[in-house]
Amino acid sequence: xxxxxxxxxxxxxxxxxxxxxxxxxxxxxxxxxxxxxxxxxxxxxxxxxxxxxxxxxxxxxxxxxxxxxxxxxxxxxxxxxxxxxxxxxxxxxxxxxxxxxxxxxxxxxxxxxxxxxxxxxxxxxxxxxxxxxxxxxxxxxxxxxxxxxxxxxxxxxxxxxxxxxxxxxxxxxxxxxxxxxxxxxxxxxxxxxxxxxxxxxxxxxxxxxxxxxxxxxxxxxxxxxxxxxxxxxxxxxxxxxxxxxxxxxxxxxxxxxxxxxxxxxxxxxxxxxxxxxxxxxxxxxxxxxxxxxxxxxxxxxxxxxxxxxxxxxxxxxxxxxxxxxxxxxxxxxxxxxxxxxxxxxxxxxxxxxxxxxxxxxxxxxxxxxxxxxxxx
Length: 376
Known about the structure:
Layout: H1 12-17, H2 19-32, H3 39-52, E1 56-60, H4 63-73, E2 81-85, H5 90-99, E3 102-106, H6 117-123, E4 128-131, H7 143-153, E5 156-160, E6 168-170, E7 176-178, E8 185-189, E9 203-207, H8 210-219, H9 241-251, H10 254-272, E10 287-288, E11 294-297, H11 301-310, H12 340-348, E12 349-352, H13 360-374
Parallel strand pairs: 2-3, 2-4, 4-5, 5-8
Antiparallel strand pairs: 1-9, 6-7, 6-10, 8-9, 11-12
Helix pairs in contact: 2-9, 3-9, 4-5, 4-8, 10-13
């Protein structure tokens, strides 16, 4: 119906479509009374490792911890720096800070919203220890050039694939590679709004480096594999078995949901093509975008968002303030104007409903409302 709200995200349809399998998975854990780590978590780790074609996967309590623990595993020294994009979710820089590194912010490509070798190089100093390319909104950063850049300077890469599970791109040799399968270590989030979302919080670290994976596995359980024996000072970041059981069901449908999101993105592209004031997402050549968010740009962002809200259409601003201008990082001394692309994106980006169950009618309503606002 015309007056039915269009939410930015609706997870109820996904649950209803797979209710029996999900309920059975939850019941299986309840019957077992094995709620933390254990067989369900081990099963998810094995299935994710196979899906991504990586040798190691370690389930942790959140996407934030999936960033924090690999950074801790690098054993930061005083003064060590980690380059992060200024245009991304706070957890990327927060994990760097909390691990004991100094975050150094870089700008991003204005079309893909991702870092490049060029933007990373602009932020490199002799103290740069690591860099975190974020695969923002479901599209991979250019990992071929970034990997070559990192190797040439002895810099460790940590992929932030929190928003990009299932995304992939062609490697320089033409073979496909998955997000979270390129760098020595990578981070995923299973927050409910992600394409692969749990019934609560959860995360995963994937690794090509076996030593890093082992250190992360220890760090998630207070720094040791054997109970009451601690090789390092870790924390409690164990993945719940309930979440793992739910995710094992959902993983089977992940690629189909990505196809649905991509179809919706294609439909938006066609319906908004004539709206000159709107820039639709740019997909880099060779990339398979999974659209955790469908993010447009317009200089009249706030007016458009109010217009959509008045018509019951949900939207989101990811993100309104770049990280270098967050109050908590003021002491780093990166003032306004230093990273102009990130600052401009924060003024212009708007994310539209893209979930796979959106449907043609609701998508058309969103697009028609945008076209009507701009008079096209």
